[in-house]
Write a structure and sequence with these properties.
By secondary structure, the protein is mostly helical. It has 2 domains: about 90 residues, DNA polymerase, domain 1 (Orthogonal Bundle); about 180 residues, Intergrase catalytic core (hpI Integrase, Chain A), CATH 1.10.443.10. It is built from 14 helices and 2 strands. It has a two-stranded antiparallel sheet with strand order 1-2. Strand 1 and strand 2 form a beta hairpin. Helix 1 runs antiparallel to helix 2, helix 6 runs antiparallel to helix 7 and helix 6 packs across helix 10. The protein is globular and about 60 Å long.
């Protein structure tokens, strides 16, 4: 099999089977292409045979080319996924990727998660979960927090009757206060992918997001998944699930959304709670959201 054929199959698996974002598909395919060229690989069996020392040598060569620790950590995650896929394709009964620690990263100042980082976190969690439906579940929860500014408890309080999602969603927040939040196409698709894959019946008045044994999904499980992705991507400890909600607010304000609209979207009881982000004035609620949010335009 030629290198282009291997890469085409890998790209198709990422885009079609795993439904990764275009950014992740490009990054993971590029990482695989570099590995194939550097090691002169020509079959899934060749790739499946790679061990930890091979990955370390490849990453060392990449470091000599000048990539930073954070980029090396992201490339390692991509290559682990690629090798695990190769082992599955070659019939390996234990298709786990080689165990290689990523580079140590200096702790940076607390900062919002960038748009690409938010999607990369969700995609990585999806791709490294123990079961496909669990990965789809966690991706959907995190995209609800980043794309709609939900608190983790609000996302986990959704019920089966809330799916499928429309363009907006009514959420019950602190103190029983209800608000209307817009839903991004990428979030809507993620929730749909989860509901299709979930092995448990999602009845109207039962929790939408289920744990591995069928009960309600706990906040702790989402936090653990986020922590694993944070370490793999070399992000600071401040990159928690709640940071996705902060990023939602920061990105919208920075792009022109007004403070009172954001107060409504976040469900804050007072404007003072929203002012911790910044002071920016602008126009109306849903219109601002669709024009300002970096992921509001699909494609």
């Amino acid at each position: 099999m030629s290198a282009p054929e291997l890469l085409a199959q890998w790209r198709s698996h990422l885009a079609d089977a795993l439904r990764r974002s275009p950014h992740t598909v490009r990054a993971y395919t590029s990482a695989a292409q570099r590995l194939i060229a550097a090691r002169e690989l020509s079959s899934w069996e060749d790739i499946a045979a790679l061990e930890a020392h091979d990955l370390r040598a490849h990453l060392a060569a990449r470091r000599e080319e000048g990539i930073a620790n954070a980029s090396a950590a992201r490339e390692l995650s991509a290559l682990k996924a690629f090798i695990a896929f190769a082992r599955s394709e070659s019939g390996d009964p234990d298709p786990a990727a080689p165990r290689v620690r990523g580079p140590r990263l200096k702790k940076g100042l607390p900062r919002p998660v960038t748009p690409d980082e938010a999607i990369n976190i969700a995609d990585l969690i999806d791709g490294t979960a123990t079961e496909d439906w669990i990965g789809a579940r966690d991706r959907a929860v995190l995209l609800l927090m980043y794309g709609s500014g939900l608190r983790i408890a609000e996302a986990l309080s959704l019920q089966g009757r809330d799916a499928p999602l429309g363009e907006t969603l009514q959420v019950t927040g602190k103190g029983g206060k209800q608000r209307l939040v817009p839903i991004l196409p990428i979030t809507r698709d993620a929730v749909s992918a989860y509901t299709e894959a979930c092995p448990y019946p999602l009845s109207a008045r039962e929790p939408l997001f289920r744990g591995a044994k069928g009960g309600a999904l706990s906040q702790g499980m989402v936090q653990k998944a986020m922590a694993r992705a944070r370490r793999a991507l070399g992000l600071p400890d401040t990159a928690t699930p709640h940071a996705l909600r902060h990023s939602f607010a920061t990105h919208l304000l920075g792009a022109g959304a007004d403070l009172r609209s954001l107060q409504e979207l976040l469900g804050h009881a007072s404007l003072g709670s929203t002012q911790i982000y910044t002071k920016v004035d602008a126009a109306s609620l849903l219109e601002n959201y669709r024009s300002a949010h970096p992921r509001a335009k699909k494609g």
